[in-house]
Amino acid sequence: MAERIELKWVPGHMDARGNEAADEAAKEAAMGDSSEKKKLPKQLRASDGIPVSVSAMRQKLTKDTSKAWTDSWTESPRYPKFCKFEKKGRGTNFEKLAGKLRRNQMSILTQLRTNHVPLNFYLHRIKRAENADCPHCPGIAEDVDHVLLNCSNYIQPRQTLQTRAGRKAASKRHLLSDKKGVKHLLEFLHGTRRFEKVFGTLWSEKDAKEREEESGEEDEEWRGEEEEAEEEE
User: Fold this and answer.
1) What pLDDT shows up at residue 92?
2) Are the beta carbons of 107 and 94 closer than 8 angstroms?
3) How confident is the model over 27-53, as a mean pLDDT?
4) How far apart are the C-alpha atoms of 12 and 6, rounded to whole Å?
5) Residue 64 CA to chain centroid, in angstroms?
6) pLDDT band at residue 31, thresholds of 50, 70 and 90?
7) Which of 41, 135, 165, 224 is deepest in the core (most CB within 10 A)?
8) Predicted confidence (pLDDT) at residue 157 exceeds the cutoff of 80
9) In this predicted structure, what is the pLDDT of residue 5?
């Protein structure tokens, strides 16, 4: 007796219980998790089972690798320090920034977040500096807070930073995680020249131009929203 298969079209993403179950079963089968042979139609009872989807296996490998990395990273002792600057606490802002900054920019941003940066406070701790003092402010430790917010040797770059960021210039979270804040920070660090030997050029004319273009695009979006609001009124 011939087997009869009936197909019915249903709209996708409509929470149809049968459709959702079929979709889940199809995903499992694509990953190689098939039903017992005796429960399958004869046409699908090949000795090697249902062919595995290469695309599905790649997706699974990517997903498993990402999960393994995430699990390893979240168990790291540096994770809490790194993510305390994130609103969601999981490094989501940093991930978005990663594709928009150069390697040396990402490197110093990571080191500033974890306080493992080549300043005397950290260098003294790992026995790479005679003391932890700031070379410009005797008796005061040269750590991230001091360089960003207080060191008297960087008054001019800090004034530029305050002009760019306003009151947020005193917010480490803004400077170390916000898209605009990070760019203002990089300009400030470049102006101090404190990290030039280790990280090279942290801010260039190209960076400044890109920031202006992004700012212009945001202004256009804001004006567009304002015009739409006026039309609705």
Assistant:
1) 60
2) no
3) 66
4) 18
5) 19
6) low
7) 165
8) yes
9) 78
For the cut 80, the answer to whether the pLDDT of residue 132 exceeds it is: yes
Give the whole-angstrom CA distance, residue 211 versus residue 180. 8
Listed residue (200, 209, 202) closest to 182, CA to CA: 202
Mean pLDDT, rounded, for 198-206:
96
**Residue 160, number of CB atoms within 10 A of its CB:** 14
Tally of helices (H runs) and strands (E runs) in the chain: 12, 0
Q: pTM for the full model?
A: 0.65
Distance of CA 226 to the CA centre of its chain: 30
Whether 212 has a pLDDT exceeding 70, the answer reads: yes
Pick the closest to residue 59 from 38, 104, 28, 34 (CA basis): 28
Following CA atoms 183, 188, 192, 193 in sequence, which dihedral angle do they give, to the nearest 10 degrees?
20
Please state, in angstroms and rounded to a whole number, the distance separating the CA atoms of residues 80 and 77. 7
Phi, psi of 133 (to 5 degrees): -70, 150
Whole-angstrom distance, CA of residue 18 vs CA of residue 26: 12
Of the candidates 185, 150, 153, the one whose C-alpha atom is nearest the C-alpha of residue 168 is 185
What does each C-alpha distance from 40 to 7, 13, 225 come to in angstroms? 17, 27, 56
Q: What is the token pair recorded at 199?
A: 């990280």
